Amino acid sequence: MNKKIIVLIVAIVIIAIGGIGFWFMSSNSNKSDKKTNNTNENSKVNTNNETSNEKVAIIYFSATGTTRKVADFIENKTGGDSIEIEPKYEYTDDDLDYNNKNSRANKEQNNSKSRPEIQNNLETDSYDVIYLGYPIWWGDVPKIILTFLDTNDLSGKKVIPFCTSGSSGIEESLDTLKNYNKDINWTDGKRFSSGATQNDINEWIDSINN
Ligand SMILES: Cc1cc2nc3c(=O)[nH]c(=O)nc-3n(C[C@H](O)[C@H](O)[C@H](O)COP(=O)(O)O)c2cc1C
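Above: the input record for the complex with flavin mononucleotide. Below: its predicted structure, written as C-alpha cells.
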C-alpha cells in the first residue's frame, strides 16, 4: 500500500479515537455536573426536610376563641400539633369582666403569685419549636401562661409567642416571658387582632422562616 495512504488511514483512526475520547469525557463531565446539581438539589431538599423535621406545637390559651382562631391558622400553615391550655376552672363571662376590679381575671392579673391551674396534661418534651399563644390581659400574659411555664421545661426550645388583643401590643408580655425563663430561646412574636386572616398568619410565618 502506498505509504501516503497508510499515513492518512492512521491519521483518520487517531482523529476518530480522539473524537470518541473527547465525546466520552465531555459526556461524563456532564453527568458529573448533573450529579453535582442533583446533590445540591438533594441537600436543598434535605435542608428543607430538616426544617420541617423540627417538631412543631402550637400551644395556646384562649378564653373566648380569638386566640384559638389564630392558633388554627398557625396549625394549617405549619402542620404542627395544636394543643389548648385548658384551665381547671373554665372562665365565665363574669370571670372575664375587666370592668369589675373583683372579677377573677382582674384579681389574677393583680396578684403576682397567682398561677391558675391547668386541667390537661401537656406533653412538650418532643417538640423543638413551640408557638405559644394567649390573649393580652391588662397589657400582659394571663397568669395561666406562667403556670404553663412553671409546669413544662422548655429550656433550649425555640418558643414563638403570639397573642390577640383589642388594641394593646405584644411588647410588655414579651418582656414578662423573656424575664420569666431566660433558658428558653424566645423569638419576638406577633400580636394579631380579632380580624386576622389565614393570609396574615402565612405572611408572618414566612417572614420568620426566611
Ligand atoms: C381580663 C381581660 C383583660 C384584657 N386586657 C386587655 C388589654 O389590656 N389590652 C387589649 O388590647 N385587650 C385586652 N383584653 C381583650 C383581649 O385581649 C382580646 O379580646 C383577646 O383577643 C381575647 O382573646 P381570646 O378570645 O383568645 O380569649 C382583655 C380581655 C380580658 C378578658
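Notes for the reader.
The domain at 53-209 is CATH 3.40.50.360 (Rossmann fold).
The helical segments are 3-53, 66-78, 104-110, 143-151, 171-180, 198-209.
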